[in-house]
Specification:
CATH architecture of one domain in chain C: 2-Layer Sandwich
Helix content of chain D: 25-40%
CATH topology of chain D: Rossmann fold
Largest interface: B-D, 45 and 48 residues
CATH topology of one domain in chain C: Alpha-Beta Plaits
CATH class of one domain in chain C: Alpha Beta
Strand content of chain C: 15-25%
Mean pLDDT of chain C: 95
Oligomer: heterotetramer
Helix content of chain C: under 10%
Number of strands of chain C: 6
Structural class of chain C: mainly beta
Largest sheet of chain C: 2 strands, antiparallel
Distance between the termini of chain C: 19 Å
Order of helices and strands of chain D: HEHEHEHHEHEHEHHEEHH
Distance between the termini of chain D: 42 Å
CATH class of chain D: Alpha Beta
Low-confidence stretches of chain D: none
Structural class of chain D: alpha/beta
Radius of gyration of chain C: 19 Å
Strand order of the largest sheet of chain D: 2-1-3-4-6-5-7-8
Number of domains of chain D: 1
Low-confidence stretches of chain C: none
CATH architecture of chain D: 3-Layer(aba) Sandwich
Shape of chain C: elongated
Mean pLDDT of chain D: 96
Strand order of the largest sheet of chain C: 1-6
Largest sheet of chain D: 8 strands, mixed
CATH superfamily of chain D: Thiamin diphosphate (ThDP)-binding fold, Pyr/PP domains
Chain lengths: ~190, ~400, ~110, ~325
């Protein structure tokens, strides 16, 4: 089974790093994975997307993900048309917001048959990291709703990327978001 | 020459690396002495990673932060002339700026290695991928390998130094791969825990002719009409030798490390009516498209050109000879030519004198990183089948996906 | 002049590298000369300026003692390598004691 | 930059100049080309343990026509504009190979770039500036004949105002080169490298001492040598050294050095000659009027004044004839 994840954020929020950390965690588990950014010339603040593919078998295709299994939204202020585009029917939508999945569905008028999950990653990031950088927290939330890699592998991937105390704090954020994510089947 | 080699006892670690990082790891494991480079998208992270290795003491090398790519290649080949194992990396405009020195590197027979994260050319400026930059190096007498995975990038850089420094070759080598599509994609790569086996496979030779006060030589001379041609013919012969040596290098690599690639990669070609020919990362997408089409009973296969220069014409012909139609997808344009795909031209010329040959269709696609998905590949194959049924294969390139251009 | 046989491509060193240092000395540049510098050993004061200024290093300092007609003793003698001298005349011009004549080559 | 202990001038007598010739005769430089004189002495000072990188130019083509070389030391030529980049690569290679013990780390290997004015002022300037800024331990020697002589006397950034060249002919509208010579040594000095000097082959001991100093400092050094060209400057080949000497005697060319920030004129001129002595010897200035010559004299007077101020005393005297 191959899972295709699309990440949406703004330049500087770390969507690309999130995509990479998830892939790296899968690779440390012996799985196959690809992580790549939407290749653009964008700078800080511009909407960006990144992709992760995870599979038990080698991944050959280098196509961008047009029909993701799950969309992860780091910044709730992004327009929904941007991140819902191509999301598979019955696909998963994970959003960083203070709202519950029901509230989000209503307020945005989302009518697709998606399973929606929400997590207040900004609060977690502010509490633990002291910065509104939510990418690692969102990886923690993701592996809860789609358990394709273990949270320990995510922790390893983070510690390989960020050294010392920054790494430890980010692992803490991952675990907090893992516990805090809300959804009807959780 | 019979080559027997025992499988090396290598402890591999499986790391998530982009193709750019894979290059940097190979450079480290090959104990390269001098690196001179200038930043350019999407090559930059190669040089950043190598700088990290040097800064941390993991690689004992001199890094020259040159003021241009022209100087990058100049310093690299001069370091090689002074006896060092030398490396540089670039892309796109940077490779164009180096162009003059590309010829000097090969003309002086300096065994440097350069990685190219391929990218489109200005104007208009495009930081995205195609192979226009690389294809402009076609006639510079550089051995050129085009890899399709980050693992192959690592392995190819290792092979490149062995081929380049072979006393019977002594030519520079480019290892190319898709800018962004591969340069910035993380994927699993096996790298050795220690680099001893790598250096055993590609040992350094400090005893070649070099700028040595003990044995002074004059390098970079002037050759009059009665001398010049012979030196150029030496390069022709060295390229021929390089074909054999590249094959051997890959074979030994496979025996030694358990991974090999060949000079071309075939995928489901044996019974294929239609064979798609491509290079670089696109081949992965093509393989998955072939899998999908095969499920629907379409007899389609794929051939990847891994060694671009010298061109492995016999390998290509063997793989393609039984096909009804060969579709070559080029990610570069030779403007003003009816067959504008550089690789298509090469495949066609390989068959030219044969009575029995497949029809060959040239497709241009992916220019400036115009998206190519499995769906695009299926559309190309569907259209090709239609042409085959009509029995009319156009003797000109088709520009796939250009708005305003339609092929009925 | 009969065309001499030049080496084949595979008999030449790769990359047009020259491995014999300073072998241009084999080349005859003496036929560039229209005028020939000739040292008057008796006038020469061994100041070395000709040796210093010559662009073609044709002055050889030979360890041959010399006694001038005025009885001055010199430990060495300067000789001109006419195989290479291009006859530029710098030595003639720079000699402080006019000890170098410039005579037309007779061909 | 800390000033190292001042070195005694190594060369005080012509007899101290090494006899060994590392630059072989049989080269194809024009008869009377003073570049031959300069290169001979450069190699005498540098000795055998030297690698020389040559930019494309007269010296390069004249000394390496396959299968003959005039060089008895390792020599590399890549292209016109990249000699400094190449020298950077050579220096880095020697440094790392010495660190790794492949080359004897105790052996000092001099690395020299030799370039003409085109390869220095113009096309090679970028790579030169890069090499200096990076601090490579390389001595750059510029032999300056004030035009592209190798291609047949075209103007370069070094061509002095009013000089005739094939691309700055003297006609009804143009009076030869229209812009003053670019002050390259000043620009190099602005890189704050340890040693910058100007030299003249007519003053061989001064020139040799400067080559020696340039090689012994830690880091980049630059020696700018005037090189009269009989072919391009239009004078009889026998006058090459005479023209060079007149350049200094008239103040058109001042021999100075900037050693770790300390400036000095190394060849003082007590009584200056009028510039017409220098200009009238050369066919490239034949079209000049007396007024134009006086204009040049004024520029030289100003430059002499500036230099005297820099030194803090009158090292170059007034015009006396």
């Amino acid at each position: 089974m191959r899972y295709e994840i699309r990440w949406h954020g703004r330049g500087g929020q770390g969507a690309v790093t999130a995509a990479m950390i998830l892939a790296n965690a899968a690779i440390y588990e012996g799985k196959y994975a690809q992580a790549f950014p939407e290749f653009g010339a964008e700078r800080r603040g511009a909407p960006v997307r990144a992709y992760t593919k995870v599979s038990d078998k080698p991944i050959h295709s280098r196509s961008p993900i047009l029909n993701p299994d799950i969309v992860v939204v780091l910044d709730p202020s992004l327009p929904k048309e941007l991140y819902l585009e191509g999301l598979k029917e019955n696909g998963l939508l994970l959003v960083n917001t203070k709202k519950t999945p029901e509230e989000l569905k209503k307020s945005l008028g989302i009518d697709g048959k998606y399973t929606i999950y929400t997590v207040d990653a900004t609060k977690i990031a502010l509490d633990i990291l002291g910065l509104p950088i939510v990418n690692t927290a969102m990886v923690g939330a993701l592996v809860r709703v789609l358990p394709i890699v273990s949270i320990d592998s995510v922790a390893k991937a983070i510690l390989e990327t960020f050294s010392g105390r920054v790494g430890e704090k980010n692992v803490e954020a991952v675990r907090a978001a893992y516990d805090a994510v809300v959804g009807s089947d959780l | 020459m019979a080559v027997t080699i025992q499988r090396a006892k290598v402890e591999w670690k499986r790391l998530p690396l982009s193709s750019n990082y894979a290059v940097a790891y190979a450079v480290k494991d090959l104990d390269v002495d001098v690196i001179a480079a200038y930043p350019i998208t999407p090559q930059t992270t190669v040089v950043e990673k190598i700088s990290e290795f040097i800064a941390n003491g993991e690689l004992n090398a001199e890094m020259i932060h040159v003021e241009s790519e022209h100087s990058a290649l100049s310093a690299t080949i001069a370091a090689s002339a002074a006896g060092a194992r030398a490396f540089t990396a670039t892309a796109s405009q940077g490779l164009e700026l180096m162009h003059e020195i590309l010829h000097i590197a090969s003309g002086l027979r300096l065994p440097v290695v350069m990685s190219v994260a391929t990218r489109a050319l200005s104007a208009p400026i495009s930081i995205w991928n195609d192979y226009s930059d690389l294809m402009n190096t076609r006639d510079t007498s550089w051995i050129t390998i085009i890899a399709s995975t980050a693992q192959e990038v690592y392995d190819s850089v290792v092979q490149a130094f062995r081929i380049a420094e072979d006393p019977e070759v002594m030519l520079p080598v480019i290892v190319a791969y898709d800018g962004y599509i591969m340069s910035h994609t993380y994927e699993p790569v096996l790298v050795p825990e220690n680099n001893e086996p790598i250096l055993k496979y590609a040992p350094k030779n400090y005893n070649r002719i070099k700028l040595d006060p003990e044995r002074p030589v004059t390098m970079g001379t002037l050759a009059s009409p009665e001398w010049y041609y012979e030196f150029k013919y030496q390069q022709v012969a060295a390229m021929e030798k390089a074909l054999e040596k590249a094959r051997e290098a890959d074979k030994v690599f496979a025996e030694y490390f358990g991974r090999g690639y060949g000079l071309v990669e075939e995928y489901m070609t044996s019974d294929a009516d239609i064979i798609l020919v491509a290079y670089g990362g696109l081949f992965g997408t093509i393989k998955e498209a072939i899998d999908m089409m095969r499920q629907n009973g379409v007899k389609v296969g794929g051939l990847r050109i891994r060694l671009w220069r010298p061109f492995p014409a016999e390998d290509v012909k063997n793989a393609l000879k039984n096909a009804k139609l060969v579709v070559v997808i080029d990610k570069a344009i030779s403007y003003g030519a009816r067959i504008a795909g550089p690789v298509a031209l090469e495949v066609m010329s390989a068959f030219y004198h044969d009575a029995d040959k497949p029809s060959i269709l040239s497709i241009i696609a992916g220019i400036g990183q115009r998206r190519i998905t499995e769906e695009t590949i299926k559309e190309i194959v569907d259209y090709s089948r239609k042409l085959l049924e009509r029995g009319r294969i156009p003797n000109e390139s088709l520009y796939w996906g250009v708005r305003g251009v339609r092929y009925e | 002049m009969a065309a001499k046989e030049l080496p084949a491509w595979n008999e030449l060193p790769a990359g047009a590298i020259i491995i014999e240092p300073g072998n241009s000395a084999e080349r005859y540049t003496g036929d560039w000369r229209v005028f020939r510098p000739v040292i008057d050993q008796d006038k020469c004061i061994r100041c070395l300026l000709c040796w210093v200024y010559c662009p073609d290093s044709v002055f050889e300092i030979v360890d041959e003692p010399y006694v001038s007609s005025k009885g001055r003793k010199y430990k060495f003698t300067l000789k001109i390598d006419y195989y290479h001298c291009k006859g530029c005349g710098i030595c003639v011009e720079e000699c402080p004691v006019d000890a170098i004549d410039f005579v037309e080559e007779v061909k | 930059m800390s000033k190292p202990v001042a070195k005694k001038k190594a060369f005080r007598l012509l007899t101290q100049i090494p006899r060994e010739e590392l630059f072989a005769p049989g080269h194809g430089l024009c008869a009377g080309c003073t570049a031959g004189t300069i290169v001979r002495h450069l190699l005498k000072v540098a000795g055998k343990n030297t690698i020389l990188v040559n930019a494309t130019g007269c010296v390069e083509v004249s000394t390496s026509p396959y299968p003959y070389t005039s060089w008895k030391i390792p020599w590399l030529h890549l292209a016109f504009e990249n000699a400094s980049a190449a020298a950077s690569g050579v220096e880095a290679a020697i440094k790392v190979l010495q660190r790794k013990g492949v080359i004897d780390p105790n052996k000092k290997i001099n690395i020299i770039v030799l370039g003409g004015d085109g390869g220095t002022y113009d096309i090679g300037f970028q790579s030169l500036s890069g090499m200096l800024e990076r601090g490579h331990n390389v001595m750059y020697v510029l032999y300056d004949n004030e035009a592209y002589m190798n291609t047949g006397i075209q103007r370069s950034g070094s061509t002095p105002q009013y000089a005739w060249t094939t691309t700055t002919p003297a006609g009804k509208v143009w009076r030869g080169e229209r812009r003053p010579k670019k002050p390259i040594a000043d620009i190099i000095a602005a890189h704050r490298i340890p040693y910058v000097a100007t030299a003249n082959p007519a003053y061989p001991l001064d020139m040799l001492n400067k080559f020696k100093r340039g090689l012994e400092v830690e880091g980049p050094s630059f020696v700018h040598v005037i090189q009269p060209c009989p072919t391009g400057w239009r004078f009889d080949p026998r006058y090459g050294i005479k023209v060079a000497r007149l350049a200094t005697e008239t103040g058109m060319w001042i021999n100075w050095e900037l050693d770790h920030g300390e400036f000095d004129v190394t060849v003082p001129v007590a009584r200056r000659k009028h510039v017409r002595h220098y200009l009238r010897m050369q066919g490239r200035f034949r079209h000049l009027t007396d007024e134009e010559i006086e204009e040049i004299q004024k520029w030289v007077d100003q430059e002499v004044e500036r230099i005297n101020k820099l030194v803090g005393r009158q090292v170059i005297g007034p015009v006396e004839e």
